[in-house]
Every structure is written in structure tokens, then in C-alpha cells.
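task queued by scheduler; priority normal; single chain, no ligands, no partner chains; default sampling; output format set to C-alpha cells
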Amino acid sequence: MGSTFLSVVILFGVVFVLEVALFWASTALSNVQVNAGRLLAGAFLAALFWMGALYGIRAFAIQPSLDLLETDRGWLLILVILVGLVVSLAAPAVLFVPLLSVSLRRGLLLSVLQLLLRLGFYAVMGAVVVVVLRLFLRALGGAIVLSSIHPNAGF
């Protein structure tokens, strides 16, 4: 129980730090002035939202009765993805209206910018992880092992 709580707190801390950077960048891009209190409050709300979304997806994914990857349930998977996208855009936009004293349209712009910045950040981090793993495998002689398994391993 203790290690699970600690891992949730650490994950929340990492998400909060990332959300501070994303919230700051999105407010700067959309020309919304924020002070430190509103910046931290907005990042905290966004971090709470994404942690809730993460654990909601986890709870939804482990349901054995909802095998979303079956071929006859593809429509349900598409519906879940679309609903998730709409909620990930609309929920923060509605929260930004009272927090930042902006219109709903500007709140939606902030939400879209945050989502695009988040996707870009994750793409860059994924590329960095792939490069680091490839260099690590190459340093350990993994190229020989992988190329013996599959001749077109790319090393």
C-alpha cells in the first residue's frame, strides 16, 4: 500500500512539473497573462485531470468483459478514443474560463495548444528513448545478437 501511494505521488509530481511547463507555454502562445498563483493552480488542475484520466483508462482497460481489441468491437474502441479526445479538450477549456478570466473560445485555444504541445513533447521523448536504447544496445554488442535473430534488424 505504501509503495503504491508513493508511486502515485511521484507520478503526480512528474505530471505536475510537465503541466507547469505546458500551461506556461500555452498561455504564452495564446497571449494570456498569468501570475505565478494562477500558473500553479492551472497546472495543478490539469495534473489532477490527467492523473484521473490515466487511472480511468487503467480501470477501463482491465475490464475483462470489455475486450476492446476484438475485431467486432472496433467501433467501441473508436468511440472511446473520440470521447476521450473531446473530454480532453472540453474539460480543461471549461476550467480555464473561471481560472484565467478568459472566454470559452480562448479556453478552448489554450486546451488545444496544450494538447498539441503535449503530443509534441511525448513524440520527442519517445525519439530520445529509442536513440538512447539503440546506443545502449550497440554499446553492449546487441547489434550482433539482434542481427543474428533477424537479418534486417537495422543495426
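post-processing summary
- The chain has one domain: 2-125.
- Residues 2-125 form one domain.
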